[in-house]
Amino acid sequence: MPKPIHRPEYQLVRDLLRDFRVEAGVKQAELSEALGKPQPYISAIETGHRRVDLIEVRDICGVLGISLSNFVLALEKGIRRPVKKDRASRSRVT
Predict the structure, then answer these.
(1) Domains of the chain: total
(2) pTM greater than 0.90 (yes/no)
(3) Which of 32, 52, 73, 76 could disulfide-link to 93, CB 3.0 to 4.6 Å?
């Protein structure tokens, strides 16, 4: 069994966080400042070098202007179908 941080579902969490950030037009430095964290904190989450817990996901979603429930819906939708290499083709619930 793969380590938890390397499971496909966790990669999807990272991809969704990054995609929602980019779609919101928010840079890593802006997001980290809003969260009171250093910029490498966001980079480490998005590259898989740092795990993120539910409270942190909620905080990030709040800064990006999306609800935690919409994030979870997008996550569940992504888990139900195979993860594609091309994230641009992924549709999300917003």
Answers:
(1) 1
(2) no
(3) 73
Q: Is 91 a member of any domain? A: no
**pLDDT tens track for 27-48:** 999 999 999 999 999 999 999 9
Which comes out higher in pLDDT, residue 84 or 43? 43
CA–CA gap between residue 60 and residue 15 (Å, rounded): 13
User: Containing domain of residue 69, as a range?
Assistant: 4-81
pLDDT of residue 94 exceeding 80: no
- 88 domain-assigned: no
Q: What is the dihedral of CA 43, 46, 50, 52, to 10 degrees?
A: 120
The b-or-e profile of 16-45 (16+ CB within 10 A means b, else e) is: bbbbbbeeeebebeebbeeeeeeeebbeeb
Q: Give me the DSSP letters along 7-69.
A: SHHHHHHHHHHHHHHHHTT--HHHHHHHHTS-HHHHHHHHHTSS---HHHHHHHHHHHT--HH
